[in-house]
């Protein structure tokens, strides 16, 4: 199976991790309503203030120990930081075939990955406790989809364990579909489905058969996958900008530079504190990157 293709699939799944779904009707669920403390933590995450973001997530989680989304957010902060430190969230990584084929150079930070895994395990435990009481609990399903998506990223991009990554990819997609069947306004879950559609739409017939043989299914068209990412950008909750990053990087791969330029410009305007978006905007525009812009 194609390492580059699964690398992209796993990265796009991360976008479901750092976007909360929109559901004004369920005020009890932090996953589907905008909690100011969590929103503030995600904003810190976007400007690469990782410790500050975790402090905000952990503070909220300490007051709501039975909610899986708090631990989902903590886990996302560790994974997002490691991907950033490794240079994965950039066009330099996405457009470099050699790096896509081999993954990161070296190994991920062991302490950070240990903390990530602990948060994932606790989030999954809390989600399953909710599902034991109600098998259709949307927050439980959402947390399981997100934790599986995060682990797929870690296994594939950082640990380079392809088989484990594919198992988690399939698991994330299954939970997302189950969630959307009962709560179609969980717009961020569309990112997982958009990932499958984008990736399978990119494959040749033979490689598409191998994907299906491995149990990973999606719709036919690459265009549909990108439209589903747009759905999250337009209607997601906490971290729509992450979907923008991924769609912009996908646009760079597809040589849709006007779209990439638009999205990176919006990100650089929204988050002027971060050098990441300004640098990616300059690259998309074909401009040199000033020294102060280097992330």
How is this fold's topology laid out?
Layout: H1 3-17, H2 36-46, H3 50-63, H4 68-85, H5 91-94, H6 97-102, H7 110-133, H8 138-158, H9 162-182, H10 190-202, H11 205-213, H12 222-235, H13 240-253, H14 257-270, H15 275-284
Protein architecture, described:
This protein has 295 residues and is an all-alpha fold. It has one domain (3-293): Tetratricopeptide repeat domain (Serine Threonine Protein Phosphatase 5, Tetratricopeptide repeat), CATH 1.25.40.10. Helices cover 71% and strands 0% of the residues. The protein has 15 helices and no strands. The protein has helices at 3-17, 36-46, 50-63, 68-85, 91-94, 97-102, 110-133, 138-158, 162-182, 190-202, 205-213, 222-235, 240-253, 257-270, 275-284. Residues 18-27 have low confidence and may be disordered.
Order of helices and strands: HHHHHHHHHHHHHHH
Under CATH, the topology can be stated as: Serine Threonine Protein Phosphatase 5, Tetratricopeptide repeat
In total, how many beta strands? Answer: 0
Radius of gyration: 18 Å
- CATH-defined architecture: Alpha Horseshoe
Helix content: over 70%
Supply the CATH class.
Mainly Alpha
Overall pLDDT metric: 81
Which tags fit this structure?
single chain; 295 residues; mainly alpha; Serine Threonine Protein Phosphatase 5, Tetratricopeptide repeat; 15 helices; globular
């Amino acid at each position: 199976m194609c390492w580059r293709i699964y690398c992209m699939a796993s990265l796009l799944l991360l976008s479901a991790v750092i976007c909360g779904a929109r559901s004004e009707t369920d005020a009890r669920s932090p996953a589907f309503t905008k909690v100011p403390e969590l929103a503030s933590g995600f904003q810190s995450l976007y400007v690469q203030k990782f410790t500050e973001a975790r402090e905000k997530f952990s503070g909220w989680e300490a007051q709501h120990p039975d909610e899986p989304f708090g631990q989902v957010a903590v886990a996302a902060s560790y994974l997002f930081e490691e991907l950033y430190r490794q240079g994965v969230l950039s066009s330099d990584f996405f457009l470099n075939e050699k790096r896509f084929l081999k993954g990161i150079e070296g190994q991920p930070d062991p302490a950070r990955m240990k903390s990530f895994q602990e948060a994932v395990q606790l989030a999954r435990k809390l989600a399953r406790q909710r599902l034991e009481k109600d098998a259709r609990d949307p927050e439980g399903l959402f947390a399981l989809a997100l934790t599986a998506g995060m682990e797929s990223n870690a296994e594939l991009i950082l640990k380079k364990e392809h088989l484990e990554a594919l198992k988690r990819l399939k698991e994330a997609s299954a939970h997302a579909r189950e969630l959307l069947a009962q709560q179609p306004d969980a717009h961020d879950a569309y990112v997982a489905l958009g990932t499958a559609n984008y990736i399978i739409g990119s494959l040749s017939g033979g490689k598409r058969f191998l994907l299906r043989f491995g149990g990973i299914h999606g719709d036919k068209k690459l265009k549909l996958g990108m439209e589903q990412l747009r759905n999250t950008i337009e209607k997601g909750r906490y971290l729509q900008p992450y979907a923008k990053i991924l769609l912009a990087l996908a646009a760079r791969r597809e040589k849709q530079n006007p779209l990439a330029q638009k999205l990176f410009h919006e990100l650089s305007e929204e988050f002027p504190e971060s050098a990441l978006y300004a640098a990616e905007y300059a690259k998309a525009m074909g401009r040199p990157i000033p020294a102060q812009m280097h992330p």
